[in-house]
Amino acid sequence: MAKKESSIFYARNLAELFYQMKTIANLTLVGSCTSAKELPEKMISTTLISEFNHIGKHERYIEFGPATTLSEIQALGERHLPKILLDAIETIATPFVRNIATIGGNIMDPESKNTLYAPLLALETVLEFKSPLDVKYIPLQNFTEIPKGHVLTNIRVPLNDWDVCIFKRLGPENRITETSASFSFLTDSEKSIITSIKIAFSGKITFRCVPLENRMLGLRLPLKSKEIENYIEEAEQEFIRAAEKTEYNPILLHQFLNLVRYSFEQLT
Fold first, then answer.
1. Nearest to residue 115, comparing CAs of 173, 68, 165?
2. Which end of the chain is more exposed for a tag (fewer CB within 10 A), N or C?
3. Pairing mode, if any, of strands 7-10 and 42-45?
């Protein structure tokens, strides 16, 4: 049977978007579709909705509309962005693709947690979802699915200074495969005492090492070799727990542990 042609609808603002989502059955929300393998039968584009494309800089955080392109964010530079987020964007595809790919599309891909997911997870990003009736704020750490009847309207990224900031992208360049993943590591210290530490991994397996992070708070720097080995073992167990119900290429675990070791060695 021949596949039906796709129908595309447009909305100029949130009110029109919610109206069409309510009145047209099986309507899928889409953006620039840079990672879409197959277009849905009925879709509504967000490209004309100005509320979805905004950047707001505040003292403690920066906000992005989900339709803000990666190039627009990259253009802000290290002076206005967390370095780890800028480092991640610069590894994504080509300048042409970054001109049309959006931050919302990168983290809301239903099939995979793409490149920006790990740094945004480490930065403790908060997602804002709106419906005609209410607004929900969900930390990315707790996000599992879009609340029914809601759409992503804002991405809030805290701004902090970090002593150590490491981002690494795994897998082939310019495409996503089973071995693609991203790793983020952040630490801050005061008087040689760790006051904050974040370790995030995303791809086929996505998680943050929250129990390990909590155990390492208050440690005195520099870390000793024996301490590093113990914490690497804990990181391995957290990866295994996160991957318990997922089939994955073993290389992901090996690469994760290598990156954890490299990151901890920066604290010696």
1. 173
2. N
3. parallel
Separation between Cα atoms, residue 11 and residue 225, nearest integer Å: 57
Residues 51, 56: Cα–Cα separation, whole Å? 12
For the entire predicted model, the pTM comes to 0.91
For residue 193, the tally of other CB atoms under 10 A from its CB is 11
Half-sphere exposure of 65 (CA within 13 A, CB side): 16
Write out pLDDT tens, residues 48-85: 898 999 999 999 999 999 999 999 999 999 999 999 99
Number of other CB atoms surrounding residue 242 within 10 Å: 16
Give tens-digit pLDDT for 148-158: 999 999 999 99
Which one, of 63, 155, 72, lies nearest residue 117 by Cα? 155
Sign of the dihedral defined by the CA atoms of residues 234, 213, 116, 128, in that order: positive
Provide the pLDDT confidence category of residue 35 given band limits of 50, 70 and 90: low
The Cα 9–Cα 23 span in angstroms is: 12
Distance CA 231, CA 215 (A): 9
Secondary structure of residue 186 in the 3-state scheme: strand
pLDDT of 242 reads 96
